[in-house]
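Memo to structure team: turn this sequence into structure tokens by end of day. - J.P.
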Amino acid sequence: MSTYHYIWRLICYRPWLYAANGIVWTLIHLAPLFPGLIIRDFFNQLDDGMSSSAILVFIAFIIGIASARILLVITGVFTDVLHRFSISSLIRKNLLDYILHSHQGKLHTGDSIVRFRDDAEQAENSISWTLDVIGKFLFATVSFILLFMIDARITSLVFIPLILIIIITNFANRKIEKYRMENRRAASSVASMINEIANLSQIFKMAASESRVLDRFDQKNQERRKTDIKDKVLTQLLDSIYSNTINIGTGLILILSAGSVRNGSFTVGDIALFMYYLTFVTDFTQFFGNFLAHYKQTGVSFKRMANVFATPDSHQLVHHTPLYLNEETPDISRQHSHRQHLPLRMLKVNNLTFRYSETNKGISDVSLQIRRGTFTVITGKIGSGKTTLLRVLLGHLPKQRGTILWNDQEVNQPISFFTPPISAYTPQVATLFSGTLEENILFDDRETARNINEATSLAVLEKDLELFPEKLRTIVGPNGTTLSGGQKQRASIARMFAQPAELYVMDDISSALDMVTERTLWRRIAQHKGENTYLVASHRKECLKHADWIIVLKDGKVASQGTLDNLLENCMEMKKLWTHEEKNF
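Reply from structure team:
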């Protein structure tokens, strides 16, 4: 999508609010037309002699118009703030929704801060500035007509600076975009390093590397400072060129006006009107130049935010969605999942396809079936597409082709469908928040969650809790820093099992576990496969030994599928994988 299309989609999100805001600010920008005409008549009548009462009437008119404009400005501030909030909130909500649901992990802390704060604010400003462009343009058009009727030659000179400004801005387009992109990248890098220093401070101390880390941070800060200076210097340089271009044009107009006054073709009122309108017209000319530069910078912000999504220039960034909870419409897919499609009898996947645009890797035409109460394993070497398949199935990545059927009913919105009590999921990388271990497992949902003892037993956490009975009440720190890697992984697994679900989906959950704990984990999970249904991505030997059905992926496609014994006999890919795992064990 182009910058124009992004802006148009945002305008259409709250069209009535944009229209109301536009009307108010158009009136604000047009209001100076009337004082100009009053001033012209005042000076023309002043030459002919004017009573004190007439002067008071003119002053009253000026005060009245100024007071009305003040009231309009107050109203305009209110509507503009409300409109700005709705625009930036929509962008931030769409970004946050996608990040939370996709598990992409594409954004570091610094990228998040810059995109959510600076880039969203840039987009917000661009929408608001369009109203100023419209209002100022209308004022310039009307004033041009009035001035043209007085003196066509002088009036034509008023708009010569505008043409020069457009030429200058177009010439500087590439520099504007380049410096703004470099500035945003440097700012993201600095913010990300601040987060890393805060989270890894103990590691830096133990390695006695504080000075090297600070030197690196200072280097990044210097890079950010340089890019920021370049960006701001270019912006200020353009603003200075615009201002001086206008001043030169204004000087020429005044010289010509003075000559017209001497030869009698200009009245005192005419020169007063020219001088009064000239201030606003030149303001529009300079503002329009700044808006053109701002428009180019906004394009950079839209591109950066759109790159968060799976496909560049994604419409998801400006997708129209409710901002408030009471605006939310019922999710039909989710209603059906809870009422009509339970319990699971059969999950079918037909020709599921997704390709990453950057590498063209992914999955192609993957089909599978999962029956209730079975233990299904998706296996293959690293990069074969195991994780991608699970993420597309769950809706974390948008499927490009294929169908997903739950009990022969098509699932149109997997991201909202595959949630408890339909399915529970444990990703490959364990993520905890800074609460107690119990809060991380139950999410404070004690009413619907299954017994925590059962969940910790399935996750092989009970031995840790016996050694440390207070562990459930212990603060685990940011992302579980007080726990070992294996404990974090098992806490994440316990969180999944604490949610009653028809289908449990696991992505390589035993990679951080020791051999004994891994064997225990898969044995306990397999003991419950009659009552639970499992879909697991793994190449681990202990997991494969308990599988009822194994699907082997190669280069994103199903190479073979069947039982373990059958695949070891007939599938070369499985033989290589099994031999490799035996060596590791």
